[in-house]
Amino acid sequence: MRRIFWRIALYASVLLVTAIILAPVCWMFIMSVSSMTDLTARPMQWLPATMDFSRYRMLLTFEPNSPGEIFLLALRNTFLAAAGASILSLIVGFPAAYSFSRLPGRRAPLLYLVLSTYMLPSVALILPIYIALSAFGLLNTPFSLAVVYCSIVLPFVVWLLTGNLNTLPREIDHAAAMDGANLWQTIRHVVLPLSGAAIGTAALFGLLLAWDEFFFSLILTNDLRAKTLSVAIADFAAGRATDYPLIATAGLLSALPPVFIAFFLQRSLVKGLAAGSVKG
């Protein structure tokens, strides 16, 4: 009886947490298919009289000077900036993590210094970043956002990959060196395949950290050439008459790409864990 009780309590807890997580998403979907009349009715109507999917068609249709143009261009810019920040952080972060984990020397204080930059508030960094980008003519471009987002993503990537590399036995590096491999061959043919799961996890979290960033994008962009989704959705609420169903629709659509990327990357993580096992 005690085992049955704890199992029921476990399932009930899981259902409660799932409901708490999914309730805002479900309400956002209901808002996206409701009319303003349904949302402002008193008493409140939890379900709309008729479901209206016109706002989905509006945001997914590319027409000049329309909400669809703003949303789709912002989606493109967000993907370029977030993917670019994740890739740049992996390219720079993996050698740094390998150095912290494998090469001799007292580098622990330097690692903590790298992590401390992750704690700095964005408002303390925006002025020197803005002056530097303005001097090089890089304002209002997705590439500049990707570089700036590295200040958020790179410390996390270095910390995560360093922890993963610390779990790999150093004997595999020594075995590769005995077989005649140099440092870069060891990293490419031995360490990288064994770190596939950690690299996938770092790429996923880096993408998510950069995907919904708002402050840097708000300050460093001013038109559709580089405006991201978080700023574009905020602009939808800036008019005199706020279209709440349109904002809810944009929020749901902007959340779909990270969900799909996480789903497919999760499968690659499982393959990376299976391929990264050490036999011996």
How large, in whole angstroms, is the Cα Rg?
A: 23 Å
Alpha-beta classification: mainly alpha
Strand/helix succession: HHHHHHHHHHHHH
Give a short account of the largest sheet. Answer: none
CATH first level of the largest domain: Mainly Alpha
What is the distance, rounded to the nearest whole angstrom, between the alpha carbons of the first and last residues? 44 Å
The total count of strands amounts to 0
CATH topology of the largest domain: MetI-like fold
Strand proportion:
under 5%
Organism: Taklimakanibacter albus
Protein name: Carbohydrate ABC transporter permease
Structure notes:
The protein starts with a helix and ends in a 5-residue tail after the last helix. It has two domains: 1-52, no CATH class; 61-275, MetI-like fold (Orthogonal Bundle). The protein is mainly alpha-helical and 280 residues long. Helices cover 75% and strands 0% of the residues.
Summarize the structure.
75% of the residues lie in helices and 0% in strands.
Keywords:
single chain, Carbohydrate ABC transporter permease, disordered C terminus, 280 residues, 75% helix, mainly alpha
SSE layout and pairings?
Elements: H1 2-32, H2 36-39, H3 54-59, H4 67-101, H5 108-118, H6 122-135, H7 142-167, H8 171-178, H9 183-194, H10 196-211, H11 215-220, H12 229-236, H13 244-275
Helix pairs in contact: 1-13, 4-7, 4-10, 4-12, 5-7, 7-10, 8-9, 10-13, 12-13
